[in-house]
Amino acid sequence: MTIKKDYDLTKLNTFGISARAKFFAEITNEADLGELFDSKEFKNNKKLFLGGGSNILLLGDFPGIVIVNRLKEITVLDEDEESMQIRAMSGEVWHDLVNFAVERSLWGIENLSFIPGTVGAAPMQNIGAYGAELKNVLESVETIEVKSGHLRTFSMAECQLGYRDSIFKQELKDKYFILAITLRLSKLERKNLSYKVLREYFEKNKLEPKAAKDISEAVTSIRKSKLPDPTIIGNAGSFFKNVFVEEKKLGEFLTLYPDMPYFREGGVHKIPAAWLIEQCGPENGTSWKGYRVGNTGVHKRQALVLVNYGGASGQAVKELAEEIIDSVFKKFGLKLTPEVNLI
Ligand code: EPU
Q: What CATH number does the domain containing 309 carry?
């Protein structure tokens, strides 16, 4: 492993923001990890571990060491008649793990198909889509404490997974490097068609999903139709989190906005941030959806996604995000928070 200096990060973040790292290293095996932890560049600098770079917005050059994780391996640890326990190294591409599962007719992560990024990022924000969450199948997370280099395994409960959230984004932020995750997937059918858009897809195409692979293909197709391909237009998926409100507040909103969509989730109501953004705009009577300013803007098919048309700076994207937050707050009194990590 060599540690490089003044490294261009443009291709390493799906937003396609041009920025540089003071130091850069790529780790492909556990020996690299040991070498990295012993290096002075690692010990004396701020650290940024990157997987697919699909959930970050770089606001400028990174004044420390950027480490790209390419630790790969998927192994079956255990199995019984009903389930299989699988361990995946953190540098695996998430969708490769989904393919590994659906090829073996295992249920549990097919609804999470085609989510960009790596396995290591999955527990960070408890990835979720189409009615499923990592939380439902995760057993444990193996980590290395950055300060000491010691191994520590977190049980699923210890990870404190919430909506796009975990202990690794909160009090243990930047303190642990995720090495591997262990999942338990089901051999028995666990079809999850709770998400309306997914049910409608099968109805519309007159298909009857039988295998996990059928659902994986449907989710992939829906995502491709709604979300911009980062290799063509820079983006990091949903820029903001959805918003949760209590029953009383929802009632008040529905009186004012009878068309407001909402979903019941865990005793509270989720209001799609995309809808809130679509109802607001840079000026009265306009909508953010499809809006463009300079080289940044709001995607025309999903208002939750901010895009870089090429050459936008992280600061410009941030400024647009702030304007959106202000306008939604003025109109609805709800404060949007970014899902993407600003760095
Ligand atoms: N909607 C609008 N305008 C839009 C898009 C959506 O009003 O431009 C409304 C519609 O009412 C729609 C509802 O929002 O029914 C929900 O939209 P969608 O199904 O596209 O999902 P979302 O809530 O906007 C979340 C995740 C996505 C995930 C989808 C599908 C968050 C922050 N985002 O988006 O995750 O793919 O559900 O399950 O929870 C990501 O994290 O990067 C990501 C793309």
A: 3.90.78.10
Domain count along the chain: 3
Q: Which of 94, 222, 225, 275 to mutate to test the pocket of ligand 1 (most atoms within 8 A of CB)?
A: 275
Q: What angle do CA 232, 11, 127 make, to 5 degrees?
A: 75
Instruction: Quote the pLDDT of residue 264.
Output: 85
> How confident is the model at residue 266, as a pLDDT?
74
Whether 81 and 200 share a structural domain? yes
- Dihedral sign for Cα atoms in the order 188, 179, 122, 133: positive
Domain boundary residue among 18, 40, 69?
69
Residue stretches of the chain with pLDDT short of 50: none
Q: Which helix (H) or strand (E) holds 316?
A: helix 314-332
Residue 46 is part of a domain; what is its CATH number? 3.30.43.10
Q: Give the chain's radius of gyration (CA, Å).
A: 21
Any residues with Cβ below 6 Å from ligand 1, and which?
Answer: 129-130, 197, 226-227, 237-238, 241-242, 261, 272, 274-275, 278, 289, 302-304, 339
Q: Quote the CA–CA distance of 319 and 342 in Å, as a whole number.
A: 12
User: Residue 265's pLDDT is what?
Assistant: 79
